[in-house]
Structure to design on (385 residues):
């Protein structure tokens, strides 16, 4: 397999799964962006044939550090080369952000299945991803725990008998907060996720609930259901990872610990095979009860924004994704307040002129425009923070 974004939270857990099953997986290509020491350690352990880095300087440093002959590439080209590396059967896309779009599309077009954690790709370019999968006769296998759960609840059942897909959401660190209280929250508060340990950007997206918004769009593309058939329920314990509600009144759920290695392993085995995993299992007796509640759509407007953008389609979800990415990073860098993240995204969306059935170039253009526009808004509002 290839692991693009190997140094991140999902990337490292993917490598843990590969390490646990050396008889089944060989890592042929890996990439990283900033964490060069981690990347070199990974290369020393897994001996990939190809390594992708950010720029030429890093490429030279990695070449000098590795005691064996390895192909090295950089930039988006490096990501694409890794994703479609010769001999790879499965590419794990563990990148964060829209940078994952092109490698996903090229891998799928080349007939390589993609185990996708990088939800931003499906949000921004869902239709193009399916076109690429059709052209390459390849599969997109979800890694996101909610979508993995839905995929598992659908096994052996007819997609036409599904009444609703129900995504569970922990509610993030600010569940129960008032809008007033959210005005003063700091980066450290937003990074303190109650149940999942993840990369910084997705943790901020969870705090705004934009992450769940993305997952609604992701579910629409993965399971070909209309937005009216996708619901969200708050489940603070993160034990039920999502559910499928069937026409006959039955609900199927998938349960497990909040451990991404479980859905990652299921995806690495093609979403079809259950292989022993050495990770801790769920203790229902200790858990006692399962809690659910309705989401607070007023305090967390990102949910309804995502429904609206998903329904609008075209370049609109790509713009929402890019503007949110810039705003979430600005918040992490303490250049924007928490409550301005979604507000910035809405302003950029209001300024956007939608392209109805975009090509890849038009999606990438909309993404670039949204980033520049979001950055302009952030700079303008800077002094009023
Ligand atoms: N973490 C989770 O539990 C979880 C659960 C479900 C879904 N997801 C989704 O999975 C994806 C990855 O999340 P994560 O939490 O693993 O993120 P992360 O820890 O921030 O890791 C991101 C990876 O992408 C690389 N990267 C970042 N920007 C890049 C760029 N511009 N060009 C090339 N590589 C770049 C990083 O490299 P460096 O580290 O070397 O800079 C790192 O390897 C996201 O889409 C997220 O929404 C994550």
């Amino acid at each position: 397999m290839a692991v693009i974004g190997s140094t991140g939270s999902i990337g490292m857990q993917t490598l843990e799964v590969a390490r646990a099953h050396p008889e089944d997986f060989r890592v042929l290509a890996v990439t990283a962006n900033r964490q060069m020491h981690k990347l070199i350690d990974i290369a020393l352990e897994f001996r990939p044939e190809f390594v992708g880095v950010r720029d030429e300087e890093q490429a030279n440093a990695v070449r000098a550090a590795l005691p064996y002959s390895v192909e090295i590439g950089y930039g988006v080209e490096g990501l694409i080369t890794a994703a479609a590396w010769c001999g790879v059967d499965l590419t794990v896309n563990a990148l964060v952000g829209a940078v994952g779009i092109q490698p996903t599309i090229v891998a799928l077009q080349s007939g390589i299945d993609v185990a996708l954690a990088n939800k931003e790709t499906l949000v921004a370019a869902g239709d193009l991803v399916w076109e690429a999968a059709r052209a390459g006769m390849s599969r997109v296998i979800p890694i996101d725990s909610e979508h993995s759960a839905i995929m598992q609840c659908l096994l052996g059942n007819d997609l036409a008998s599904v009444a609703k897909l129900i995504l569970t959401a922990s509610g993030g660190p600010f569940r129960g907060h008032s809008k007033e209280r959210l005005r003063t929250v700091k980066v450290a508060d937003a990074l303190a996720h109650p149940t999942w340990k993840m990369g910084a950007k997705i943790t901020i997206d969870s705090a705004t609930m934009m992450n769940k918004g993305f997952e609604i769009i992701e579910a629409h593309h993965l399971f070909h259901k209309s937005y009216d058939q996708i619901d969200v329920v708050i489940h603070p314990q993160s034990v039920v990872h999502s559910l499928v509600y069937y026409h006959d009144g039955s609900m199927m759920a998938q349960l497990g610990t909040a451990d991404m290695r479980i859905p990652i392993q299921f995806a690495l085995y093609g979403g079809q095979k259950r292989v022993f995993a050495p990770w801790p299992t769920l203790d229902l007796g200790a858990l006692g009860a399962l809690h659910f509640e309705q989401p607070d759509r007023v305090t967390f407007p990102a949910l309804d924004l995502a429904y609206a953008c998903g329904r609008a389609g075209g370049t609109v979800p790509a713009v929402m994704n890019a503007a949110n990415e810039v705003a979430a990073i600005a918040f992490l860098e303490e250049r924007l307040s928490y409550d301005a993240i979604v507000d910035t995204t809405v302003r950029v969306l209001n300024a956007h002129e939608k392209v109805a059935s975009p090509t890849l170039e038009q999606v990438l253009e909309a993404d670039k425009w949204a980033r520049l526009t979001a950055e302009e808004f952030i700079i303008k509002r800077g002094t009023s923070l």
Observations:
- The chain has a mean pLDDT of 96.
- The pocket of NAP is lined by residues 5-11, 32-35, 79, 94-97, 99, 117-120, 144, 196, 198-199, 201-202, 260 (CB under 6 Å).
